[in-house]
Amino acid sequence: MSTAVSSTVREPILDRRADFPIFEQQVRGKSLVYLDNGATTQKPQQVIDAEAKFYAEQNANIHRGVHWLSQYATDLYDQARVTVQNFLHAARPEEIVFTRGTTEGINLVAYSWGMENLKEGDEILLTELEHHSNIVPWQLVAKRTGAVIKVAPVLDSGALDLDAYYQSINERTRFVGIVHVSNALGTVNPVKEMIAAAREVGACVLVDGAQAVAHMPVDVQSLDCDFYVFSGHKIYGPTGIGVLYGKYAVLDSMVPWQGGGDMIHTVSFEESTYAPVPQRFEAGTPNIAGVVGLGAALEYVQSVGLDKIDAHEQALLHYAEAQLQQLPGLEIIGQAPGKAAVVSFLVEDIHPHDLGTILDADGVAIRAGHHCAMPLMTRLGIPGTARASFALYNDFEDVDALVASLKKAQKLFGVES
Ligand code: 7TS
Q: Which atom of ligand 1 is closest in space to residue 179's alpha carbon?
């Protein structure tokens, strides 16, 4: 990610908090300090307005009606697809499939691509950094197809053991699933090089971009992955909407995974033929308002600028880590070079869940637990961590509030700082 920033500098690069109405309210009588952005981000007024406007003025079902409003809603839906295409720098809009989120995107690939293309003895290569949503679908596919799962390990720093990753790739490797940015530790994987290595043996590659797209520019053509998935709600967009990018030729070779309206060409009781991509994978009435809201979110992020967002979050990360390291008994888990703005930590003698509860009393929202990365926690020999994850609206006062609240927790537990 971006260049190192001095940990004592308190120069905010962005000042966009006022765009987010949720910060107008107090939580437990205190200003909301929201540091659970890895779980979901707050929404700017622009996104809220886009969804409200859709329901107030533009609502109709898409691709079906001959009437004006349906055409209008269809146009908005199609425009948002082009917004996503440009955001990911995909070659064509048909490469963008709307899903419910990252989880559904991975399941779509597992069921449609995996069930058809994997067979006994084939290898699925994952990493120890994966979120459960890029593990469990592949276990289900492995059980049904006889493929086997191989796992590239992490180093103690939280960085992926790249030598082991490269050594794990062989002519039996048919599918590689890699997280772009680890939600639990913030590790940023060098996905471009990792994809190139998988390509050499002809393996299909999916990148889980759930924690990446809100923090760094992504260019799927330059990455040369087959699939890239993300969730709208982690990039200031609505919940219940996400994106599966797939290379056109790969998507076009795939069978539907859900049947219903809008995904067919013809239907008879004997046989049905299917619509071209992406409609083939968008059965039923989709989350139209969510798609419109996602388009607004991506436009918002682009208007703020991903470079500025990255620099701002990195400044907060460095400031936070410098402050946290001064607390006695606090250990930062995951120190991979160039990591994203996520700090996972443990405080001696205080369970992460207790920390989360004590911080909540001060209006400080963090996440505590295994972060849906149980294999990673097992590898690190810990049950879980406390995690602060940053977004574009966080500021240095948020970090100060986190540190002050942690000191309070330590005092409560008899640890003096
Ligand atoms: N992949 C990664 C890397 C994630 O961080 C998450 C959610 C998902 C997949 C699943 O996304 P969904 O939108 O389909 O649920 N991660 C987290 C988290 O870190 N805390 O809560 C959810």
A: 3
